[in-house]
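Board notes (copied after class):
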Amino acid sequence: MRGLASAKWCYVTRRVATRQRYTLGAFATPPRTGDLVVARVSVVGGRGCLEDVFGRRGKLYPGDLVVGACGNRYATDVYEGRHEPDQVAQLLTSGGVIGTVVSRNSRSVPPTELQILGPLIDENQRPVSLEQFAEPCFPVQESVEQAPPCGALAVVGSSMNSGKTTTAAGLVKGWTGAGLVVGAAKVTGSGSGKDRWAYLDAGASHVLDFLDFGMPSTFGYPAERLATTMVAMRDGLVREGAEAIVLEIADGVLQPDTWTLVSELPRVCEGVVLAVGDALAARAGADLLRSRGVRVVALSGLVAESPLAAREAAAVTGLPVVSAGQLACGTAVQLLASRTAS
């Protein structure tokens, strides 16, 4: 055993309390998704940084010890990564998701290479998992659903980096400016602190994400687990006092996890703001969502940055196009007020 006083604890470990209780152990069985492991940095790659438990990005150096979580990643602009215990390990996110890169975007740089030293273990020599620190979650059919007093909207995108988080933050800012107590949730994605801070910076009083429910990233988890967690997030925010809620779903509509959750949206929220980059994505995305019974209330994201592109998108979908700035200045309240309209 060895101490971890000098180790850098990644963002995905933010719910792990009393870190002094834990040490480096030896593997008795291969680690599972969500298990915490200790690794040494072999080669610094990626962005060369690591998010700590507060979301601060610090510089990485060869030889650094890090504590992260085994997991997967689905990121079309960066890496596709899988938890493969017998393979070379890499840092899949700066937040500390550790796995093996199986494909990467040609424009991305190679990831940080890691040497896995062993599992994080407790005083009883048992491996430590994020599941041990998770919020309680009940099967959907057993949950007591709690709709927020002023309603909930989801933000879904056509792809990665289409403007979803900026759109969600715009909704939060607009509702907060109107005097509402706002809750925000990142339903799916890969462990990182930037989206959580975006919600808080915009004024959210209560924030939840998949890390709060024991998942370092959501790619690869069963569909039922993800659906259950989405409902639990909404209900949890209501219990904490949120009057209006935004639920952000990562990646694009065609990402398998996102597409699975789309069918659940009509029973979880009143409508969707679709973040897209152009008119073609707007038309296809709106049609796909409507085919699953989802009410699309507006378009936003990158398309709203160009007046010409916005007019194209509005013309082919019949939907209003609103920028994050417009949402923050009052349009968000209008969308919420009209959520029950046909």
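Comment from the instructor: The chain has a mean pLDDT of 93. The CA atoms of residues 112 and 252 lie 26 Å apart.
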